[in-house]
Amino acid sequence: MTNQFPTLFSPCRIGNVEIKNRICKAPQTTGLSHMDGSVSSRLVRCYEDLAKGQVGMIIVEYAFVDRDCSKSASNQLGICDDEYMVGLGWLADTIKNNDCVPCIQIEHCGRQRFLGPPMKSASPNPWPLMYQRYGQAAIPQELTIAEIHQLVEDFGKAAWRAKNAGFQVVEIHGAHGYLITNFLSPFTNQRKDWYGGSRENRFRFLEQVFTRCKEYVGEDFPIIVRLSGTDYEPGGMTTDGSGCC
Asked: Where is the NADH:flavin oxidoreductase/NADH oxidase N-terminal domain (predicted)?
């Protein structure tokens, strides 16, 4: 292993955060939070065990940023209100106490809301799986400009909560069919305003989210973005440059 990957166990940095090795645990939903999205003891134990495995950084599973439509599934972690910060602090401290860098992923599920309607997205273009399950009720409402601006603020406040709870890195979820992907992909974004059409317009929401998060946490705090190279949908994102990326 060390011959093939000689730097795997050497320290690295993301911005000003030093990580003891190059091993990162990617975000993966556990369904171990309380029903209201608050941190539970079983969630903390899960991440404590992962941190004890000598991973350099753990990206804690996706956390929803508002109480409206961003929550994707039952027992999903929440970061949409200050009341969650005590539990999030407990979780971040547990990871740090095991010599591991805690990162948290913040998200809005967009049209991929497994809880069913109401759903909101860039355009009223349903996810086929949800449409099969819920029919017309699965057609998402197109976000208004005012709602988009509010979500930009919600992401920013979520990043602020993460930092103040003790997380050292924040990851913005812009992949896997969730809301930011719905804006990026020309298949799911048929808007005619300055959030749709050209690639520059389709990236605008993500750019504003990223910028607002940085304004809340400061330039020296690391923020990373998870993106999909392709969404495997006709006329969607591709890696050859013909779609989003």
From this structure: 8-234
